[in-house]
Amino acid sequence: MSKSAIDTGILLETGTNELEILEFYINEIREEGKEPVPNFFGINVAKVMQVIETPNLEPPESAPHPSFMGTIPLRDLILPVLDLSVWLELDMPKTERDIVIVTEFSKSVTGFLVSGVTEIHRVGWGEVIPPSSIISTNTDAIVGLIDKGDYFVQLLDLETILSQFEPDDGLEMAVSANEYKILVADDSATIRAMIKANLTEANLKPIITNNGDEALRTVMEFKNKAEAEGKDITEYLDLVISDIEMPLMDGFSLTKNIKQDPVLRKLPVILYSSIITNELRHKGESVGADMQISKPDLHTIPQVALELIEGGAD
Predict the structure, then answer these.
(1) Is 99 strand, coil or helix?
(2) Which residue has the higher pLDDT, 166 or 237?
(3) Do the Cβ atoms of 291 and 241 come closer than 8 Å?
(4) Is the model's pLDDT at 175 over the cut of 50?
(5) pLDDT of residue 135 exceeding 60
(6) Domain over 4-163 is classified CATH 2.40.50.180
(7) 292 to 99, 234, 269: CA distances (angstroms)
(8) Which residues carry this modification: 4-aspartylphosphate (predicted)?
(9) pTM of structure
(10) Which CATH architecture has domain 167-313?
(11) In the β-sheet with 48-53, what is the strand arrangement from edge to edge?
């Protein structure tokens, strides 16, 4: 399956709180001597370059992680291949019918070995159920569930997986002379902790929420409190930082709601995602985002936040 074969509908109307996912499955041996059972997963179609047949790699002894299977050539690239079943702790039987989903995001191209691909779904973020309400999982790479009736599709955050392979940048942080209040919306505990630490180190005060829906409710509470006390919204909140892909409400819809509100629209909004490209950047612009950042550049958020807040105050 090539990129062109899965490209239809990626550029959905912005602010509709929808996304398209590629559904795939990983077979799991649960009982010896019985047929493997499929586990269904989904990733954003916009992150998928193409789907190829298994290269039948044998993991090297010096692998940096048990899921690392080696590298393969593709076009003019040499890309790593990760066994997703190892990461998810599923006992997947290897067959000649296995496939590799080649993804491109966070400025990197990576292959993920799985058992097979099923279909593409268009879903609303409101349909995505937070995983903690249905299943217990040992990884925060599973960020939501989609109920298909007789089975659940587990929505994966591949950035969480790849972050384990990327060392910290070790860059110096900007430090603010004022303790500005920053609302953060992200469904990944790993990314929330990273951004909270970066903001705190820069003397900024993070207010953490788990998704766009919770973030919007929190912003509206600040608005109502400000109006009741006759104060400006910036007495309670100075800026909003949001991931784009989240259950219940995505970052585009959150931004659209903020920028369409006559009181809240003055708040700068920073959107970030692993899939921010020149082609997709217009989506954030169309809903009024003040800045868009790729996830590999999250270390720049404190500096960008300071520039937006203090630049807007001039």
Answers:
(1) strand
(2) 237
(3) no
(4) yes
(5) no
(6) yes
(7) 33, 21, 9
(8) 243
(9) 0.68
(10) 3-Layer(aba) Sandwich (3.40)
(11) 48-53, 99-105, 108-114, 77-83, 68-74
